[in-house]
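can u pls check wat happens w/ magnesium ion
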Amino acid sequence: MPKLPVILNPSAHSEKGRRSADVIRGLSDRIEVVESHSFDEARQIAVEAASRGCPAVAAAGGDGTVNAVIAGLAGSDTALGVFPTGTMNLFARELGLPMGDLAGCWRVIEGGATKEVDLFRAGGGIFVQIAGVGFDAQIIEETTWESKKRFGPLSYLMSALSVAGQRAPRLTVIPEGGGAVEGAFVLIGNGSLYGPAFRVFRNASNDDGMLEVLVFERQSHVDIIRYLSGITLGKVEKMKDVTYLRAPALRVESELPVPVEVDGELSGTTPVEFRPTARRLGVFVPGGEGEA
Ligand SMILES: [Mg+2]
């Protein structure tokens, strides 16, 4: 087996990041840690590894790092391994990787079991887990780096309160096959998990070629709390001012440009089209460890 390039989170210069990098380096002499200094560079390293014909590349970081690496691997035969060292690690949790156990994640990669997962493009971006138009993208847009550093996860709540106080945009969601729906904001799932612990898309499967779509009619403080409780109770799809649909592709339009996020990273504004990539991505998943 050739060496496995492990692309490191660009913000791995923090103490926590350095510690994870050391742990990963120490797991095996078949691991080659490659530092990146930006998401763009992380993507570029993945592009080069894929074009060299590397059978596998791993991302060490959070969902932003995973997103940069999948953007580089999309369309190639190179499989993705994940060392979840970020805050949310939604994709790693979706895959059922052992959390807080980097040695366990290495055993998953060594085990060699892979799953082919759907990737979707949205405007100039690509995503494997979730995307949003409006509300949640606006929160990401308003949450500055300084605020994150100062207030941690609370900074998102502060932005959410601010965005919910603003006038909601008017979006038109046009799924492939017709049946346009209007709303204030849209969440789009390839995977089921979003946020700290929300199973937003209960029926999601990331290998069925379909996107799960929730269109929310309003976004005042009271509405957001209501939607969150609907999500927590597992009945958001049935709320009367929420539309749930599934589609292989869709388009979202609005009168004024509204921000779009993919896997938690901003990716342009409306109008935006969500459509599947030509090929799925191989991802290491638990199940092969016993055979290693
Ligand atoms: Mg799906």
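Residues 4-119+279-291 form a domain with the Rossmann fold fold (CATH 3.40.50.10330).
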